[in-house]
Amino acid sequence: MYKPEMIFFDYGHTLCYEPVQDYRAGWTAVLSHAVENRSGISAEELYGLCTGTYRKLYDEMRPLELETDGFQLDATIYDSLGLKFDVSLEELEYIRWSVTEPIFPMEGIEPFLRLCSDMHIRTAVISNLSFSGDVLRRRINEALPYHSFEFILASSECVFRKPSEWIFRRAMGMAGVRPENCWFIGDDVRCDIEGAARSGIWPVWYKSPLKCTYKPEAKTPPRCQFTRVSSWDELGEILRGLI
Predict the structure, then answer these.
(1) pTM tops 0.85, yes or no
(2) Domain ends where: 46, 66, 100?
(3) What secondary structure letter does DSSP report for 3?
(4) What is the distance between the alpha carbons of residues 161 and 108, in angstroms, rounded to a whole number?
(5) Distances from the Cα of 171 to the Cα of 9, 124, 145, 151, 155, angstroms
(6) I need a labelling partner for 72 at 20 to 30 A (CA). Which of 54, 78, 105, 154 fits?
């Protein structure tokens, strides 16, 4: 293992913990801001329509390592239903996600990010997410206000999603770094660990003891070389030893 020039981080269940996902509450919050509802759709019907539409797209696109542009999909659904709102669609997206899924910094992540800064290691985020990049940046800025990420890249603005090499290549191109000088830290065996390895980046499997609320635990370990840690303190000790 080597001291990296740059570390890329996954977002969900890596930087931040999401203790609950309540999609019904999120879509109910959306409809509470409607000032025009020409179709007369109820909150429960909106929840069923939107979750079903998202699921169909996920099932078709994710095996191809492609991502849904959730912001534009939401706008399409709202227009088709004749819905108008008392806030902008950007603010509505933020409200829906915040109500659906509160987020909190993972224990130990803030000291680890300070350590990276102290060691002059550059940092950025690569996240698989159908929410827009703008709302992801807003939420990370709120959860981790003292971060020094150079950029935060969501798959929704990249077409491709992890484990596709394209999203990793884009991030490395944005940063001007070579894969052999980088780490990628994430919790997902296929998307994060095997995806980073496919792109030539050293993968660090952050396997938190906290149970992930939105995906099952991997049944098999990564099929590549990797470093495994269960806490940010543990990884900090490893990083200090590489000076």
Answers:
(1) yes
(2) 100
(3) -
(4) 27
(5) 11, 8, 22, 9, 11
(6) 105
* 145 upstream amide cis, omega within 30 of 0: no
Residue 37 lies in a domain: yes
Q: Please indicate, yes or no, whether residues 117 and 213 belong to a single structural domain of this protein.
A: yes
- Tell whether 1 is covered by a domain: no
**How is residue 233 written in tokens?**
């303190």
d(CA 62, CA 203): 21
Decide the pairing of beta strands 6-9 and 182-186.
parallel
What span, in angstroms and rounded, lies between the C-alpha atoms of 34 and 48?
Answer: 17
The answer to whether residues 112 and 86 belong to one domain is no
* Same domain membership, residue 206 and residue 166: yes
C-alpha to C-alpha distance for 90 and 97, rounded to whole angstroms = 11
Per-residue pLDDT of the chain (243 residues; tens, 9 = 90+): 789 999 999 999 999 999 999 999 999 999 999 999 999 999 999 999 999 999 999 999 999 999 999 999 999 999 999 999 999 999 999 999 999 999 999 999 999 999 999 999 999 999 999 999 999 999 999 999 999 999 999 999 999 999 999 999 999 999 999 999 999 999 999 999 999 999 999 999 999 988 888 888 888 899 999 999 999 999 999 999 997
| Number of Cβ atoms within 10 Å of the Cβ of 17 | 19
Range of the domain at 95: 23-100
Does residue 48 sit in the same domain as residue 110?
no
